[in-house]
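Below is a filled-in request sheet from our internal design queue. Each sheet records the structural input a requester submitted and the sequence that came back. We keep these sheets so that new team members can see what a complete request looks like end to end.

REQUESTER: design group, bay 2
PRIORITY: normal
MODE: inverse folding
CHAIN LENGTH: 283
BACKBONE (tokenized):
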């Protein structure tokens, strides 16, 4: 059941849970996400970064994502994560993505608004939902790197202006998380989440959520986060599954058997996240 991100997040916002958005790079990752979602009866977002699309190719990633969504027993959105290039966003829309993110956070506020409006004008005309980002989230996601010194938290009043002028469907906010593996425990600005939630009406998105504690995630959701992005935790689960199998079966050369434990380990991690997010039995 292929749906837009907006449809999923409006329900999550109304009912007080969050939808997990998991990054995809190959067939096994997609299978793990869909199986976990079906077994948990949870809505889910398959999201491809620009790096993931470069790795797999837009034809492969869109075909796999759309096929998985159409055959799924739960609602699924196919989403572009951190689209920084207008042409890349348009390419994903042309290939059937139901949701896209335009990340203009590197620009000053005025330019970010103008860049986002340009995408929204096209996307909304064809029924595709749009996520944007305000503030700069630290860390590295594929080719996008923001130094810790350059990371800036989202200003609630700027968020209000941004949403009013762009009519964006959901907004990624910078409140203390970072992309990649954390060196220490992340400190989320819960007061800022609460203030932004009280200031704007659209669903809020938390990026860089791998490694954030269960308690912190649940508190963020209670304060208004409706979409939570997970990538690094899946990479760790995938790598551990492959390494453990090869260690125990050094002579096995069957890629199906090598990747099967990785898929199961990712699936277990995804189901664990869905429990934390409160999305189980919300499909």
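RETURNED SEQUENCE:
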């Amino acid at each position: 059941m292929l749906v837009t991100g907006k449809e999923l997040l409006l329900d999550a916002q109304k009912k007080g849970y969050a939808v997990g958005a998991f990054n995809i790079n190959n067939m096994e990752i997609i299978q793990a996400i869909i199986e976990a979602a079906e077994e948990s009866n949870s809505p889910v977002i398959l999201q491809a970064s620009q790096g993931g699309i470069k790795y797999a190719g837009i034809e492969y990633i869109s075909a796999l994502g759309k096929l998985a969504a159409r055959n799924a027993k739960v609602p699924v959105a196919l989403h572009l994560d951190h689209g920084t290039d207008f042409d890349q966003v348009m390419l994903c829309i042309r290939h059937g993505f139901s949701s896209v993110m335009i990340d203009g956070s590197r620009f000053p506020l005025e330019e970010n608004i103008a860049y986002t409006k340009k995408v929204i004008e096209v996307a909304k005309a064809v029924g595709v939902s749009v996520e944007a980002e305000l503030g700069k989230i630290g860390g590295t996601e594929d080719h996008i790197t923001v130094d810790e010194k350059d990371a800036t938290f989202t200003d609630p009043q700027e968020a209000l202006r941004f949403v009013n002028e762009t009519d964006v469907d959901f907004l990624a906010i910078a409140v203390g998380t970072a992309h990649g593996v954390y060196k220490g425990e992340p400190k989320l600005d819960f007061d800022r989440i609460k203030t932004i939630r009280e200031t704007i009406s659209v669903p809020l998105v938390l990026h860089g959520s791998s490694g954030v504690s269960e308690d912190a995630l649940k508190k963020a959701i209670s304060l208004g986060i409706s979409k939570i992005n997970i990538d690094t935790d899946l990479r760790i689960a995938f790598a551990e599954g492959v390494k453990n199998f090869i260690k125990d079966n050094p002579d096995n050369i069957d890629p199906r058997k090598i990747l099967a434990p990785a898929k199961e380990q990712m699936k277990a991690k995804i189901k664990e996240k869905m429990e934390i997010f409160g999305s189980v039995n919300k499909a």
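SHEET NOTES:
- The longest helix spans residues 255-277.
- The longest strand covers residues 76-83.
FILED BY: M.R.
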